[in-house]
Amino acid sequence: MLNLKIKINKQFVFVWFAELISILGSGLTDFGPSVWIYEKTGKATPLAISILFSVLPAIFLSQIAGFVADKFNTKK
User: Fold this and answer.
1) 19-48, pLDDT tens digit by residue?
2) Which of 12, 63, 65, 66 is found 20 to 30 A from 55 (Cα to Cα)?
3) Which are the contacts of 33, defined by CB distance < 8 A and separation ≥ 6?
4) Is-contact 38 44, C-beta < 8 A?
5) Model pTM?
6) 3-state secondary structure the chain
């Protein structure tokens, strides 16, 4: 039988949990106005368009950020 002890880094768990809460809050902030638009219009098309426009910048900017991160020296 294998006896493994797992050491938990409390600082890492704290930072990880804080990041989880931050990402959840950011996601709800993007989704909230879309729900409000749906409540006001009662139509799914404006809801879909608002969600699309909240997701598209992250999709395109992540590609540019990846290029910049790979292109330049990280030691500088």
Assistant:
1) 999 999 988 988 899 999 999 999 999 999
2) 12
3) 50, 54
4) yes
5) 0.61
6) CCCCCCCCCHHHHHHHHHHHHHHHHHHHHHHHHHHHHHHHHCCHHHHHHHHHHHHHHHHHHHHHHHHHHHHCCCCC
